[in-house]
Amino acid sequence: MPKRAMTTQVVVVSDLHVGSTLGLCKPVVYLDDGQEYRANRLQQEAWDYWTNVFWKQVWQNKKKGIKTVVVANGDLVDSQHHGTVQVFSSSIMDHINHAAEILDPIREKADAFFVTRGTPAHVMASGAADEQIARQIKATKANGNPGSVRSSYHLKLNIDGVLFDIAHQGPNPGYRMWTRGNTVRAFVRTIVLDALVRGVRPPDVVCRSHVHSKVHETCRDYGHVCEGIISPAWQLKTEYAHQIASHEDIADIGGVIFTISDGKIRNIEFRILPFAQTDYVEA
Predict the structure, then answer these.
(1) How far apart are CA 259 and CA 7, in angstroms?
(2) Is residue 282 part of a domain?
(3) Which tens digits make up the pLDDT trace of 164-194?
(4) Which of 19, 87, 90, 229 has the fewest CB atoms within 10 Å around its CB?
(5) CATH number assigned to the domain comprising residue 205
(6) Which secondary-structure segment (H or E) carries 192?
(7) Are 266 and 259 within 8 A, CB to CB?
(8) Looking at the whole model, is its pTM more than 0.70?
(9) Which residues contact 102 (CB under 8 A, 6 or more apart)?
(10) Closest among 31, 132, 46, 128 to 87, alpha carbons compared
């Protein structure tokens, strides 16, 4: 009988911004000084989707024998940045500890769990907060990382012959409907063409995060096909987000699941909880 092809799901989540009063949060957070923070209504809806929809599907897939690789692609905590008051604690350790508490059960179930580093404004210089979370949950060490380092700025992940190029920061999604995806395509083409010129293998997937908006663009150059992805976030629109994206009604809350089988990408699925934060009034 022919050998059955191995199937792997690569699950990318990013921008949890734990510690924000609009970031991912369990129903109750126990702070270092003995106080409690209770998730607000918006956070409770996002948490319900995280536990009972998104990860429920991932673990149902795993029960079918599908190998599961998870990438937490940066900005796992929010921190007290830019004078914000939208945090549940001014202690970065409260943010780090709660993020680790959220991610540790996922790490235990996943076959591999990688962490990349986000932006210094949120995760401190050298990605210290993301690295500390990676250490607490014992994230998978990438090849070549010295000593106890467990997170990466830039991760190239070969999954059953499919090459992923993953980092936190990248292009913007486009701020008008008629420009949406343009910068993503240009960004991906640059990476692919640069690899071809240097005579190295170009990636099959380029995945970035940071801008809290999902995008999927397919680029074809010189016979090579590359999927350009921007992952959604798990933080609702903050005061800052309302300033820079006041024309948008919906926040993209969720993650992306890649299905790999027999050396090919079989499916790319965004699991999204559309979240409106606009007040509608009839008068």
Answers:
(1) 7
(2) no
(3) 999 999 887 777 777 788 999 999 999 999 9
(4) 90
(5) 3.60.21.10
(6) helix 182-198
(7) yes
(8) yes
(9) 16, 18, 24, 26
(10) 31
